[in-house]
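Why this split exists: single-chain examples teach little about how molecules sit against one another. For that reason, every record in the complexes split bundles all components of an assembly together and asks for one structure covering all of them. Below is a record exactly as it appears in the raw files.
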Amino acid sequence: MARKTGSHSEITGPKVRDAALRLFARHGYAAVSMRQIAREVGVQAGALYLYTKDKQSLLFDLMRTHMDELLAAWAATPKGSTPLAQLEDFSRFHIHFHLDRPDAVFIAYMELRNLSDANFATLEALRREYERELERILEAGHAAGMINVPDTRLATMAVIAMLTGVNTWYREGGRLSQDAVADIYWDMVRGAVGA
Amino acid sequence: MARKTGSHSEITGPKVRDAALRLFARHGYAAVSMRQIAREVGVQAGALYLYTKDKQSLLFDLMRTHMDELLAAWAATPKGSTPLAQLEDFSRFHIHFHLDRPDAVFIAYMELRNLSDANFATLEALRREYERELERILEAGHAAGMINVPDTRLATMAVIAMLTGVNTWYREGGRLSQDAVADIYWDMVRGAVGA
């Protein structure tokens, strides 16, 4: 797949990001060198630095892009008018979005400790922003008497953990389609929050 | 904390395991050398090999010990007579056991990809054994009409993901005690499985 050499113009962001994503997911950030990433893209190691400052910048770029895309995709998702309908929208959205990006999700959880402090803080703020989207739905549902949880913050964390957990076992082409999984999980989410 | 040197008799299993656990959790398996572990224990690097064959053996030992302890502790946990009571026992047990061992849990999830194929297979079998404990409870609850889930396997994965998720946000000394968290999560687990 990798070509032996490439002109600088071929080192486009997406190609470098794809290669880094694959390699980080397979071997872990700490075990992957810029040289390996360059080889995967098909360019000389030195040429990689025309695109990215260093490996840390590359990791941060991957993780921030993932969170930016997550927030943008959720913002663009059509939503129901009641908190309960929005909770269903969120549950289905979360499962599909994450199942469609297994490597990015894997890295988002596995490589947090390898971020610099400043980069970690930025990522945490974006993650918190996403969590707040769900938390607001649960608060509105609670206020409307549509759901029943003693602690909306804990319910937020519980629902997100439950939904993200699908990525650890789901295999495309297995016995259940993404939609079938989303149906079953929506049922469990609704039950968990007493709706 | 670390001493400069130590006699061989001081290189006890627990000391080496504790040091490896701390370092793997903080920096990741790939980034930690046997030399660093030896320094943390307070012995020469060569002396470490009297206790363990290599870094892979050390990682596997940590992860297998964690799973062995998990299975043994659950087996020793007093259990209620109904599937619903057992589900509550399982939920509370899981939360307490995992919150008491943050580093071991972190490593159990983060370092799976760094295991050799044979070691990975052994670990997966132990993990599957633990999941089966919960799955059997859900099956019994379903058969007794006490719970209502369309798919006991998916409910098993959902409940375990939800419960293990507590480790990602819980801080000892925070606004909620372990018991308060377990109360709230038991409520959500019960709801998720329609009990």
